[in-house]
Amino acid sequence: MTHQALQYRDARSRGPRALTISALVAGLLLGTLPLGAVAPATAAPPTDLEGAYVLDQVGVLAGDEQRVQDALDGLFEAGDAPLFVIVVDRFDDALDGLAWADETAALSGLGDRDALLAIAVESREYATSIGAAFPASDAELAEAENALVAQLRDDRWADGIIAYADTLTAALSTVDEPGGTPGGTGPGEPGVPPGGEEAPTEQGGR
């Protein structure tokens, strides 16, 4: 079976989600349904995560929940970088993936330092909404996306999420190494600039 890889993304600009679109989005491997799939997928509207770090509406992460959570915990410990994940059948047809991810982030009250990874299993898409103060650089985010896609090509959903988180963890962990270049604020000092005053972070208000 052959797949057509289709990619589209914005310029990776990041800002308050209430004011500007800050999502990165890519269509992934448009192809046929897996063998044995008989029911049409449900289009999901933007969703409030209600405080959950991982929300799997499809069930593809069953048995791998702890592995995924451990990867998210590792990322948070490396750079005070909260990553939230949602998995659905497909995004609401009225929105593209970029808008869907941003609206989900807004509904969930994610802050300026938070990131959201959204995966649509049936339509084979993913989208990310990245807060303006998320500590990874655009280059590090691109590397993490490459690691994600390498796994999603083979329907390895949990492994894709873990690869995305682990790649960012490795990048942010370099702030503790001699000569390391942080992608943002270093671990243990969230939101504190060189002057020592805590930088404001946006909470909700999208």
Key terms:
206 residues; alpha/beta; 5-stranded mixed beta sheet; two-stranded parallel sheet; 28% helix; globular; disordered C terminus
Write the layout of secondary structure elements.
Elements: E1 23-27, E2 43-44, E3 54-56, H1 65-79, E4 83-88, E5 90-91, H2 97-107, E6 115-120, E7 125-130, H3 138-152, H4 157-173
Parallel strand pairs: 2-5, 3-4, 4-6
Antiparallel strand pairs: 1-7, 6-7
Strand order of the largest sheet: 1-7-6-4-3
Shape: globular
What would you report as the Rg, rounded to the nearest angstrom? Answer: 17 Å
What low-confidence regions span 5 or more consecutive residues with pLDDT below 50? 1-13, 15-39, 180-206
Strand content: 5-15%
Which secondary-structure class do the elements indicate? alpha/beta
* Chain-averaged pLDDT: 75
Helix content: 25-40%
- Kindly, what is the distance between the CA atoms of the first and last residues, rounded to a whole number of angstroms? 42 Å
Q: Number of helical runs?
A: 4
What kind of sheet is the major sheet? 5 strands, mixed
Number of strands: 7
Give your account of this protein's structure.
Helix 1 (65-79) packs parallel to helix 4 (157-173). With 206 residues, the protein is of the alpha/beta class. The radius of gyration is 17 Å and the shape is globular. It has helices at 65-79, 97-107, 138-152, 157-173; strands at 23-27, 43-44, 54-56, 83-88, 90-91, 115-120, 125-130.
Q: Quick recap of the structure?
A:
The protein is an alpha/beta fold.
